[in-house]
Amino acid sequence: MNRHKPLKHILSELRYTIDMQGAGVGGLIDDWVNVRRNKVVLPDAKTKIAVITGGARGIGTEVIRGLLKANMTVIMGIRKPELVEKLAESMENGNNLKAFELDLQSLKSVKEFAEKVLKVYPEIHILVNNAGIMFGDFKLTEDGIETQLAVNHLSHFYLTHLLLPALKSGGLIGESSRIVNVTSCAHYPGKIFFEDINMKNCYDTTAAYAQSKLAQLMSARYINGLLKEEGCLVKSYAVHPGIVNTDLFEGTLFKRVFPWAMKMFFKTPAKGAISILHACFDKDLEKKSGLYISNCTEGISNKFSKNVEHQKKLFDISCELVGINPSNYGKKENL
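The structure corresponding to this sequence follows.
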């Protein structure tokens, strides 16, 4: 990777930083304007199975709390499954919380996690691709993928592929199974660096984060289109939970300088979970799919994400990176 950045890359980093701040301000305004829309009615889903990545803290913990309150069996994918016992003790219906090891920086781990889930649960009704990381130095995973792209997008893309047969089995007429990608308004200044998707030539952590969140949104839309063409009873959504005071901001300049502002103006994790639970359960969404949801309503997304040619190109590259034929996406594998 070239560490001696030319002026055009320095200016690009500055633009991304400014645009990301603008996206954040826009997200805060959206949260304030639409605060009354943030409501969710939890059903009794006693016979249903949900899978979620992450969840040991922050928004994910509150999503799990909601899924358990809906009487679902919840399977967490988490790096340290031993943490789950204490978490379960603090939750209603905590006995319904299970965990298997999952490291999203390893495609091998993703496959092993999926294998364990499918062995016990051949039908799944909700998949929440929640876990994520933000910023940090340039680093490649063991599979040679930039870490933010790997954790936020590619491993979830692969996990969705592996679990789709079970999601298809779980879908019913009027009660489709649902895939929920937790994205961000941070996608707005982003684009996909198709010619250098790992950004090896000149890494910008802000642009890489924006790319990963944009990829989550685009894959949710494209996969939804594929499922619709196939006539499957599975629907896909992308959700921006709002600007939430979580550990993702640890180490950032904003956290160091304005911690008081985060407590005053940002959503709590519990409030951030509402839009995600809305995407999991809202009955009216059965008539719609492929949406970008913010504050329990359709949000404003960038033009790049809506371009079907861009979506397909990202889909094909993602399939190549995880080692599957695009025509076999969502088809049952011999795990």
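The first strand starts at residue 49 and ends at 53.
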